[in-house]
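Entry:
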Amino acid sequence: MDDELRVVQMGSYKLRFENDDDIGEWFEEKARVELRETPELREESLNKLKDMIAGRDDMTMEFLSDEYLLGFLRVCKFYPESAFDRLYRSLVFKKKYPKYYDNLNPLDERNVFVNNIFTVLPSRDQHGRRLFLIEAGQRWNPKHVSLREIVRGVFMIVEAALLEPRTQICGGSIIIDVDGLPMSHVLQFSPAFAKFLLDWVQTVVPARIKSVHIVNQPYIFNMVYNIFKPFIAEKLRNRIFFHGADRESLISHIDAKFLPSQYGGDMELETVYGENLYNVLCLYADRFQEVNGRKLVEVKKKGKK
């Protein structure tokens, strides 16, 4: 896909989804220091992972490109056994939750994007991380956008971002704005849903979630958090920060130059470009054919003689 087609116009800013093979020295060094990545280890680990996949009757290499497998190796710091376990869990998880996974196609999910619940901010932060904003408070009307649509929208954005080697290396940070959260939103969540979502974040998706920032939370948000809290492992718990309306607190983690002014940053950026993001995601049709094709292979059981 041409570079200009991967650009989301956001007022005077542009978000560009990358697929550059040459990631630059800064990212290469970060991969070496944080992930143990070297060209030699990368090749060795990729070959070992492929051998492990080939040794399974219920798996196939179809739709498992090298770039996709590298995402699992990077999140597991190039330990092939751990990467295989995460990959296998992802396929089991996908089979277990068809409601959220089956037939992912941006063309069918326009509604969640035009309601401007999601914004991928145009610049990486000072750590090279992607910044993903979810406005799940007053901007989200469950009568117009279902929780299922939100989850499927998140999955599609993550799939596009995971094409980026720099995102595989540096990971991402999530900002969740729950300003004006009403009781009707709280009732959307159950312990079963909380477990599903946190299993995906913590044990399935091949992405480094480096921090989660909750902003503008009203007192009622405690009810939501208490639903999710039993399923949050210590590693993720230590990466969740509650800022309320304290913008200085938020920019102590994310430099102001990478944030919109409404979050204490320097960018004059309205978060109203969901349809532009949707239009770019629709260009990834071949990617989502691959996503939908990744699944466990049915193994026929031998009948007794």
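The domain at 106-285 is CATH 3.40.525.10 (Phosphatidylinositol Transfer Protein Sec14p).
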